[in-house]
Specification:
Blueprint: H1 5-35, H2 40-66, H3 73-90, H4 96-125, H5 131-164
Helix pairs in contact: 1-2, 1-3, 1-4, 2-5, 4-5
Protein name: Ferritin-like metal-binding protein YciE
Keywords: Coiled coil
Organism: Pseudorhizobium tarimense
Amino acid sequence: MADTSATREVFVSGLKNAHAMENQALSIMKPQLSRIENYPEVARRLEEHIHETEGQMSRIEELLQQLEESHSSVKDMALSLTGGMAAMGHTVAGDEILKNSFANYAFEHFEIAAYKSLLTVAQVGGFSFATSALQMNLQQEEDMAKWIDDNLRSVTTRYIDLREAGESAKV
């Protein structure tokens, strides 16, 4: 299928939404990272994923530039604000590390779905120049979701062990 005006609009809108989504991810992960003390493996992986996310945003910006477009500052700001509020919401929970793990797992799958959809639009609309960057972003999100899935048991048991020992188990 050819690059039609409607398909282009869907693709550009999707890229702008993806940029805002990654901005939101940063506003969730950075506060989490700053609070982690007792889960060094989670802190290391969050820090890695923050760097990956920054790279994802750069790739999206490059794609938008190729389309002579730019990201939406309004969408970025709105989603960053909601992400920050979500991150703050878990700080009052006694099991903050678990709540963060659940939320991060769900958010990674939201991002996976968004990139799969963008890849479909790229294919349908003939935006083959975007496939490699979007595939890379998708792979990083899938890797992070798998890491959370693979480590949820150890995070949970560490939380229980800290609670049993009477130590701070929140983060």
